[in-house]
Amino acid sequence: MGVSRVGLAGLAACAGALLAAGCGGSARSDTPDAARPPAPLVAIESSTVDVPLSLPAQLYVEHDALVYARTTGIVESVYVELGAPVDQGQLLAQLEHTDQEIALAQSDHAYQAALREVGRARELMKVRAITTADSEQAELTYQRAELAQRQTRRNYELTRIAAPFGGVVTARTVRPGRLVTLGDSLFRVSALGPLRVSVRVPEGPSAGLTPGARAEVVGQDGAVARATVVRASPAIDAASGTREVLVELAPGAPLRPGASVTVRVGAERRRIIAIPPGALAEQGYVLVWENGRTVLRAVTLGARLADGRLEVMSGLAAGEQIVSRGR
């Protein structure tokens, strides 16, 4: 967690929250008791703990696709707006299709005629009332009619722009009356879940990560979502010494596809210093008892430990004392 320099407003907020604990950097008093802050002091100690790995990543969904024009034509109608929910197969837009409709009707008529003719030929062939050549010609005419019908039906279907799966329209670039050509991007449809994230975990900590292992995903605004490891690569990448791990968020997570997040997964054993949550003021500052007075100091935080304490990556050293409003 990074911090930024606090202005006057931030210092005032901190003072309002912790001044009762000695915030403000008061001058040293003549008596030891007067110099002590009214809130308890906590001595910073280092300890060896198992800390979850914090890995940057970006959320995605499996079903996320651009919808392209599959033929050239004039856009006749557009049926959905940006942000509209859609079902699989739902019509998003329609190209002009009069010519395709006429061709399809003609091919349907030819197919039905060929079907009747081949039916009669097959019955006559049973009683040897038709030559083999005439029977084969009827079969050939039927096959050609069937292929022509399939082609014209395909040409008609290409004028219909449909949703490939259920989701939400996240982009719309098509407008009625415009000419589109084969391959033009018209819409983007994205499912809202399940949300997933892929991270590369160092070889050592990744050893215990198997499907079902718990994880945690944290958004940039601090929103936290429960997650589970769903897949892990069976191989280690030789170049990076990492293993790809796929994590899926629990339903109802307060995060969106594409968001930048931090994934907390696995654990590595390391020597750290940690502080109780009550010692942290707004904007990542703590009050340090230094030379008989309190000093406002910025810290950079890491993971939250199992006992609720916060890992301090920088800003504090073992042996220092800080003001805390509680554990």
Instruction: Report the major sheet.
Output: 9 strands, antiparallel
The radius of gyration computed from the alpha-carbon positions, rounded to a whole number of angstroms, is 34 Å
Could you say what the CATH architecture of the largest domain is? Beta Barrel
Helix- and strand-based class?
A: alpha+beta
Contiguous runs where pLDDT drops below 50 for at least 5 residues: 1-32
Which percent range describes the beta-strand content?
Answer: 35-45%
Name the CATH class of the largest domain.
Mainly Beta
**Gross morphology:** elongated
Q: Would you give the CATH topology of the largest domain?
A: conserved putative lor/sdh protein from methanococcus maripaludis s2 fold
| Count of individual beta strands | 21
Separation of the first and last Cα atoms: 20 Å
Number of helices: 5
Mean pLDDT: 83
The share of residues in helices is: 10-25%
The tally of structural domains comes to: 4
List the helices and strands in order: HHEEEEEEEHHEEEEEHEEEEEEEEE
Description:
It is a single chain. This protein is α+β, with helices and mostly antiparallel strands and 327 residues long. The protein folds into four domains: 8-51 and 270-323, conserved putative lor/sdh protein from methanococcus maripaludis s2 fold (Beta Barrel); 55-62 and 192-267, Efflux pump adaptor protein, beta barrel domain (Elongation Factor Tu (Ef-tu), domain 3, Beta Barrel), CATH 2.40.30.170; 64-95 and 159-190, Beta Barrel (OB fold (Dihydrolipoamide Acetyltransferase, E2P)); 98-158, Orthogonal Bundle (Helix Hairpins), CATH 1.10.287.470. It has helices spanning 8-18, 32-35, 98-126, 132-157, 203-206, and strands at residues 41-43, 46-58, 60-61, 64-68, 73-78, 85-86, 91-95, 160-162, 167-172, 179-180, 185-190, 195-202, 214-219, 224-232, 242-249, 260-275, 285-290, 293-298, 300-304, 310-314, 321-323. A hairpin with a 2-residue loop joins strand 17 and strand 18. Helix 3 (98-126) packs antiparallel against helix 4 (132-157). It is elongated and about 115 Å long. The two termini are 20 Å apart. Residues 1-32 have low confidence and may be disordered.
